[in-house]
Amino acid sequence: MIVRKSPAEVEIMARAGKVVADVHEILRDLVRPGVSTAELDEVAERECRSRGAVPSFKGYRGFPATLCTSVNAEIVHGIPSANVVLREGDLIKIDAGAIVEGYHGDSAVTWIVGGETSVAPQVADLVERTRAGLWAGLCAAQSGARLTDISAAVEAHALPHEYGVVQEYVGHGIGRALHEDPHVPNYGRAGRGPKLQPGLVIAVEPMFNLGTADTRVLDDDWTVVTADGALSSHWEHTVAITEDGPWVLTARSDEPAWPLREPHRVPTAGSDGEATRHRESALLDAQEAG
Ligand code: MG
Ligand code: MG
């Protein structure tokens, strides 16, 4: 059952999203060779709680940590550990969620430890194209569109490069529960599924692999890895469908948040002054429109 949110509920979800965005921005500056994923997790929990929020994942079905930290061939649901110390050239996927007044925000990033010159161009391309797939999906989350318009927009960024598009794990509705209906696949033909209506809030989260799409779960019963051991990238944002366009509730300060009126516009990686200006002017426009 799809639960649509009132504008007031979406405003609360935006506050949860802001906490998640803040946490990601803080962690981004800490990701470097020598830092352990347990250290990142500790900072994430502290920063989350200091903002009056509760980590979404900790205790969720018994998950032990604030973050999911997944390195290299790990796709999602990796458990932070003092024994996992990042090295130059690692891909670290950080997934974070926060609850404010009972509502969740959910967002994931893929950072290249040491920066993109630390990896082969094909690896940097995987990361960037997965991120572009996310933004294509977010831009497709327009009121009146169909659910799989998002799926097709995401997958279009993988198909030309023959990336494995993970099928066993997909995006999802989000609200009072971390995972709500509908499922949001990262593959498939456009024009199907429920019509996107204002108040629908979903997490779009492509996972692209350099090899097969197939996955398996490690003995810890959480960590999902690529079946062939190839590298994987994962990016995620929580987005609300509004009359005025998609509102990216977990957007970081260097990304546009609302409304995404220009489907072709994908912010470039890293700090992007233009995207920030775009967001600010969009917000001004929205305020003027009342
Ligand atoms: Mg997530
Ligand atoms: Mg999610």
Features:
4-stranded antiparallel beta sheet, Creatine Amidinohydrolase, 290 residues, disordered C terminus, 5-stranded antiparallel beta sheet
Q: What is Rg?
A: 17 Å
Mean pLDDT: 91
Based on DSSP secondary structure assignment, what is the total number of beta strands?
15
Write down the CATH topology: Creatine Amidinohydrolase
The H-and-E topology, N to C, reads as: HHEEEEEHHEEEEEEEEEEH
Multimerization status: single chain
Please state roughly what percent of the residues sit in beta strands, choosing from under 5%, 5-15%, 15-25%, 25-35%, 35-45% or over 45%. 15-25%
| Adjacency order of strands in the biggest sheet | 8-7-9-14-15
Short description, anyone?
This protein has 290 residues and is α+β, with helices and mostly antiparallel strands. Helices cover 28% and strands 23% of the residues.
Report on this structure.
- The chain is of the alpha+beta class.
- It is 28% helix and 23% strand.
- The chain is built from five helices and 15 strands.
- It has helices spanning 7-30, 37-50, 121-139, 147-155, 273-288, and strands spanning 54-55, 67-71, 74-76, 91-100, 103-112, 164-165, 171-173, 180-184, 201-204, 207-209, 215-217, 224-226, 232-234, 237-242, 245-248.
- The strands form four sheets. The protein has a five-stranded antiparallel beta sheet with strand order 8-7-9-14-15.
- Strand 7 and strand 8 (180-184) form a beta hairpin.
- It is globular.
- Residues 269-290 have low confidence and may be disordered.
- Residues 95, 97, 106, 108, 236 line the site of one magnesium ion.
